[in-house]
Amino acid sequence: MSQGNTGVTDEAIHDVACPIREVIDRVGGKWSVQIILATAQGPVRFTDLERRIEGISRRMLTLTLRNLERDGLIVRKVYATVPPKVEYTGTEMSRELHDPLERLADWARRNRGNISAARAEYDQANSRDD
After folding, report:
1. Contacts of residue 125, Cβ cutoff 8 Å, sequence gap at least 6
2. pTM score, whole prediction
3. Domain of 17?
4. Domain with 118 in it: what CATH number?
5. Ramachandran area for residue 15 (φ above 0: left; ψ -120 to 50: alpha; else beta)
């Protein structure tokens, strides 16, 4: 069978892959996963998210929250208090993601050592004395 005539054009692949890649990039981002997991169980304040997510800057947290809100994955609720109180809650759509993301996180924790060992083995076998 000729590979040149599969009936699927590059344009058709692009039309399907582009939206999928865009969604996966958003929900699979470094900070997005942690925020989705943190907001799945109920409302979380900005400062609580900031404390829970090690290494995230205030700016990156703000940008990621905005993007997740824009995508319909979290809801932002502002209370008219002094100082203002803001809470973030996962939507039904993001709660649907919770279990698969939790399983992925568990897999990553279980296999972190194996991956590190494989990388070290690969690096040793492929190192060059230039």
Report:
1. none
2. 0.70
3. 10-125
4. 1.10.10.10
5. alpha
